[in-house]
Amino acid sequence: MATPFNAILVLSILISSCLSSAAQTCSSYTFSNSKVFSSCTELPHLGASLYHNYTASTNTLNIAFKAPQTSKGWIAWGLNPNGAKMVGSQVIVAFFHSNGSMVAYPTQLDSYAPSMAPEKLSFPVSDVSTEYINKEMIIFATLGLVGGGSKFNHVWQEGSTVLNDVPEAHSTTGENIQSLGTIDFQ
Ligand SMILES: *[C@@H]1O[C@H](CO)[C@@H](O)[C@H](O)[C@H]1NC(C)=O
Ligand SMILES: *[C@@H]1O[C@H](CO)[C@@H](O)[C@H](O)[C@H]1NC(C)=O
């Protein structure tokens, strides 16, 4: 009766390794570019995490946003200075361009069918970069939070498709309509 015992042993090893990887926190993650952030938050939906450094004296926010994705999809994260939901949000989106490079840029979600074209935001954005590692897309950026204090409504999102270098609409069910909240960067 060695076989069932071995099967149980293998199963219990599998279960314990799954549990330990699920227990891994955002703070134990090492970015390939060696960037380090003083805070991170595991967001409650879409498996996403937000890393940040906030400098109150200059109202500057350095962020990394990380979420699981296939190479065909897109991710986005941003702030909504004037509302709590998608419309009005000032976001940064990332995906693989058809030329094979990842691209990331700011865009305004001015309606439920935004253009998703590169645009200026209502606050300064600089040092935008992106990478794809271990089936996760990551956005890095520096934001100037002009006079807004440290507490914001934020939104995050992912979609499975990019068509002609434009991110297509995300799912409108489940976690894809729950991925918003408030965050205090202080
Ligand atoms: C965040 O702040 C820490 C501590 O000041 C610093 O070591 C780190 O380089 C900063 N990270 C970024 C991405 O600015
Ligand atoms: C791919 O296109 C993007 C956006 O136009 C551009 O920034 C990037 O340099 C291009 N990469 C290559 C390898 O041509």
From TrEMBL:
Keywords: Membrane, Signal, Transport. Its main location: membrane. Coiled coil: none annotated. The keyword Membrane applies. The keyword Calcium does not apply. It comes from the Eukaryota. It is found in: Membrane. Residues 46-159 form the DOMON domain. InterPro entries: AIR12_DOMON, DOMON_domain. GO terms for cellular component: membrane. Residues 1-22 form the signal peptide. This is Cytochrome b561 and DOMON domain-containing protein At5g47530-like. It comes from Elaeis guineensis var. tenera. The gene is LOC105050599.
